[in-house]
Design brief:
6-stranded mixed beta sheet, 3 helices, globular
């Protein structure tokens, strides 16, 4: 039964951020990426991430380019973790436009990026990129 994760019906969205708060968040996130303290979820629940990475042949170098290129105005909103066990966590949603190679054709793609930054038992910060795929619904940017 443990494979069934309980989901909250409507996780709350948060919009009450200033550009400086998001810039500080991105500073910490970039440090995680540069220090190798991050992962992109690629488990059975994240087929969309896996397909996106494979379709656009995204290697570590391209991954870094996209993630390190996030700017405060790519921020959309934050949301409560919809996994009840982690409801105290807040995930930050970004949408980044990036030119990617789709089997030899260059495409400008809106990449939906959902980040969970967590503190480890040792007090380090680790980032989990929960979503990393083509945007598949309308989104609004908070600072544009």
């Amino acid at each position: 039964m443990s494979h069934l994760r309980s989901k909250k019906q409507n996780p709350q969205k948060f919009f009450n951020f200033t550009p400086d708060v998001i810039k500080e968040y991105l500073y910490k996130f970039r440090k995680c990426v540069l220090d190798g303290r991050y992962s992109i979820s690629q488990n059975e629940n994240r087929q969309e991430n896996i397909g996106f990475i494979e379709d656009y042949k995204i290697d570590t170098k391209k991954e870094h380019e996209i993630l390190l290129g996030l700017q405060f105005d790519d921020f959309c909103y934050a949301v409560e973790n919809d996994n009840v066990d982690f409801a105290h966590e807040v995930l930050y949603i970004f949408c980044k436009q990036h030119e990617l190679d789709f089997w030899g054709t260059l495409e400008t793609v809106d990449i939906y990026i959902k980040v969970n930054m967590i503190e480890t038992r040792r007090g380090d910060i680790f980032s989990v990129v929960v979503s990393f795929h083509k945007r598949n619904f309308e989104i609004t940017y908070l600072f544009r």
